[in-house]
Amino acid sequence: MRTSTVLLDRDFTIGHTDKRLFGGFIEHLGRCVYGGIYEPGHPTADAKGFRQDVMDLVREIGPTIMRYPGGNFVSGYNWEDGVGPVEDRPARLDYAWFSTEPNTFGTNEFIDWCKMSGIEPMLAVNLGTRGPQDAGYFVEYCNHPGGTYYSDLRKKHGYEEPHGIKFWCLGNEMDGPWQTCAKTADEYGRIAHEAAKIMRWVDGSIELAACGSSGRKMATFGAWEDTVLDHTFDHVEWISMHTYLNNYASDTPAFLASPDVMDAFIEEVVAIADSVAARRRSKKRIMLSFDEWNVWYRTRRPREARIKPGWPVAPPILEEIYNMQDALAFGGAAISLLNHADRVRSACIAQLVNVIAPIMTETGGPAWRQTIFWPFADFTNHGHGEVLRARVTSDTYDTYYFDPAGMDDEVRTKVDNVPYLKLAAVARDGGLTLFLLNRDLAEPMLVRIDARSF
What we know:
Layout: E1 2-9, E2 13-16, E3 23-25, H1 52-61, E4 65-68, E5 92-94, E6 99-101, H2 107-117, E7 120-125, H3 132-143, H4 149-156, E8 167-170, H5 185-202, E9 207-210, H6 223-232, E10 238-245, H7 252-279, E11 287-295, H8 303-306, H9 324-338, E12 344-350, E13 359-361, E14 367-369, H10 373-382, E15 386-388, E16 391-393, E17 396-405, E18 409-419, E19 421-428, E20 431-438, E21 445-452
Parallel strand pairs: 1-21, 3-4, 3-12, 4-7, 7-8, 8-9, 9-10, 10-11, 11-12
Antiparallel strand pairs: 1-16, 2-15, 5-6, 13-14, 15-19, 17-18, 19-20
């Protein structure tokens, strides 16, 4: 049996967990929306077409904020297609997922669903095929009280009061060659800067997230964040991050070590953001929005292998089936987010239903929980509070992790001195919650905890 020791003190904290740290993600991708959260005619569907069996599971798992409508989908999306009378909405080809988008579910349906679920909405604007003026119109439609074309259009659509959306994302993964109208860092930085200006002129109370690089192993990573923040620093509060953990190599010790690569990624982006602030002699600190994270590898094949012929509506794609080791790695990632609660203030598991998701459904049939449902529910239900700065002493191991670069490639990363014990400690209401992961596949672990000032 291995023995690890943990020293922590109630007064030594990393930071308070922001409510938005426990978020989710809904994209018009596969069966996430159609056949997932929305299925008119399903035995449990309400008058709006929302599956109540799914909503019950969503309330159980407890996400606090929800990102929509993408993801890659947003870079070719016209938000106007998804509002107004359903019978008047056009069907469009979705370039991101080679599907047909019927637009029967759109912005107002999403807002209604969030209200019924008790979740804060997070909206993304299209900075791929569209630009700053369209982003401003979108904010006007959602947030302006009235007396203008787009705010009165919202009222015409049955929503007298503004939606009051506070959190907005300036595009998605704009350095990815798979993205519709991908951009260089300077191209994206300029358009994001101008979009942010217009969006804030429409509603000065909103918060904006600039697009970070699509991943730590992208060739653009680092320089991208620096350049983009150089353009947008004065106009945004957040920069986004995306990471998907994998077990491509069928190496479970390496897989369970992968959350430590996530730790390094967070610390690198913090350093870049703070260097931009330092060049400006600014005390402002950019926060991190980890708005896509999960385990994903079995269905993460080259794009052409994922395409369903004929541009179908809501094809079953990226439906990852999770096992126990996936749940363990997932839990390790949640620990990493908690241990950076001072700067990671928002995070969204990607995605919520059917598509690399904790909740699965059968179209016309039941809904059920996958293995990763349980650690996420623990995270959302017990992770609120003050994250303590723990000193962990544990035996370690060395490994190699296959970290994806972009959508299709693999890069081997050496990970040294991985502690067998990964831990986060959260103090709340006079009590203490511990999240512990034993990464030793052969030995149980005795953990001795010295919790001071409780």
